[in-house]
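Any chance you'd type out a single protein's sequence alongside its tokenized fold?
>
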Amino acid sequence: MNIQIFGKAKCFNTKKAERFFKERRIKYQLIDVVKYGLSKGEYQSVKNAVGGMANLIDEKSKEYENQYIAHLASQSDVEERLQDNPGMFKTPIVRNGKKATVGLKPEIWGEWIEG
């Protein structure tokens, strides 16, 4: 099991995801998504696993409003802005190889552990 948690420092759900894996003594790597973002490969893998880019965007974030994402026509423009402004990612993004979740999903993480 190779768990990566992409999260934000002040995100309660990121802290809950960390606690979930700590309590089960499962090693994980925590990545500050705002500071480091996602590489192109990580982004594509996560996007495919969660059913598309729309599931990754936090429409309540300040960055979302500041970038006028709702008014952009092309998906490539939105993806470019998302890569340049990783604070728009919904968190936590928890990745286990080619599998990934967005948000708090302990039921799915439990399946990974049992699986």
